[in-house]
Write a structure and sequence with these properties.
This protein is of the alpha/beta class. It has twelve helices and 17 strands. It binds zinc ion.
């Protein structure tokens, strides 16, 4: 189903700037090489009014998230450490708010929420597997999708809340407006909502078209986040660019507080996004990267890392097992499975061999630590422009 109006503001003037063709669901790793992967159009549009960048095709949530593969936050040690520091920072910066109630939208396995167990709290997540782990860790959890209706239920039972978290949630929801309406409804007058999103300018500047996949429905700048929040009476009072997922703004949404100087600074840096030319060159750059990769990925080459973005990359480049003979990834749940839409099998690192002509470094956002931990290999870095190292 194609979107006919903006997910945040409802405007119907959506300008397409990127078409990556048909691509499978990125993290629907198949169990056998011959298992069919349904493919859907991967086209990206920008709203002419609020500048929210979003996918044109809306794949139904049950198709998108019913793949059997679940991401568990606590499985990543760096992410777990990040959550501990994040929780401490919020408690220090907004003392007393947690005692008024904490809600985490998209709480996953409770890796962040567990730091607020001493306070009245509830997590909301539609994935039963991670939610069950959160419950085992002593977190209260509602297993359902979040929107205004869920927020009304929580507020009727628990009253208005001091802190709401929604980290890397807005990127994945079909209806941004409904989720922000829910957050606004939950917050008490002096409450704060901490929101993290992946940063659109980084995607554009780094030519990171492989971050475009169906699970990633929306791409925010500070400006488009401010616009979407304002529709629900909220404003971004502070923003911080973090290193998570290759650059993510973490913003505090609230009603009464005046925006900090950092908000003005980031907002000013985004003026270029108001011109369609900011988006229009992306298609040509993606196609040039494809041509160059098709030249480089020859001979005895494998992929290093099986992140969701590899699915987009191989689908767009037309790669299969004759190009990338295998893939290695440290995630046990992915090992023994296949890159969606291909016959490329995922192995643990060290198996089956070191490819003579190099690894395509699919997890390129972790390039430095991966290359340092695996000296002596040749590497093909695909983004922001393909290079052989
Ligand atoms: Zn819009």
């Amino acid at each position: 189903m194609k979107r006919t109006s903006c997910s945040a503001c409802g405007h119907t003037d959506l300008d397409q700037f990127l078409d990556l063709g048909l691509s499978p669901i990125a993290d629907a790793y198949t169990a056998t090489p011959d298992e069919q992967s349904p493919k859907f159009p991967l086209q990206v549009v920008v709203c002419a009014k609020c500048r929210l960048v979003q996918l044109l095709e809306v794949v139904p949530a049950d198709v998108l998230f019913g793949t059997g593969y679940s991401f568990y936050s606590s499985a990543s040690a760096p992410l777990s450490a990040y959550h501990a520091a994040y929780a401490a920072d919020v408690r220090d910066r907004y003392p007393g708010l947690a005692t008024r109630g904490v809600v985490e939208v998209g709480c996953n396995d409770g890796d962040l929420l567990r730091h607020f167990r001493a306070f009245p709290h509830v997590g909301v997540d539609p994935s039963s597997g991670p939610a069950a782990v959160a419950a085992e860790r002593g977190c209260e959890v509602l297993v359902e999708p979040f929107g205004l209706a869920t927020a009304q239920l929580i507020r009727s039972e628990r009253g208005p809340q001091g802190l709401v978290f929604a980290n890397h949630v807005l990127a994945h929801v079909e209806d941004v407006s409904d989720v922000l309406a829910g957050i606004a409804h939950l917050l008490r007058d002096n409450g704060i909502a901490m929101v993290e999103v992946q940063y659109l300018p980084d995607l554009l500047v780094n030519n990171a078209f492989d971050l475009v996949y169906h699970e990633h429905r929306n791409f925010f700048s500070l400006s488009s986040l401010e616009s979407a929040a304002a529709t629900h009476g909220l404003r971004v009072h502070d923003v911080e660019l973090t290193d998570r997922q290759g650059g993510a703004p973490r913003g505090g949404l609230c009603r009464p507080l005046v925006p900090t100087a950092r908000v003005f600074k980031v907002r000013m840096s985004e003026q270029w996004l108001n011109d369609f030319s900011a988006y229009a060159g992306m298609q040509g750059r993606a196609e040039r990267i494809r041509t160059r990769l098709q030249d480089l990925v020859v001979g005895d080459v494998a992929a290093y890392g099986a992140p969701a973005k590899l699915t987009t990359l191989v689908a767009f480049c037309g790669f299969d097992i004759e190009h990338l003979h295998w893939c290695v990834d440290t995630t046990p749940a992915k090992q023994g499975r296949f890159i969606p839409g291909t016959h490329i099998e995922i192995y643990p690192p060290g198996e089956p061999d070191v490819p003579r002509d190099g690894f395509l470094l699919a997890a390129h956002n972790y390039a430095a630590p991966i290359m340092a931990a695996n000296p002596g290999n040749r590497w093909i870095l695909p983004i922001p422009a393909p290079v052989l190292i």
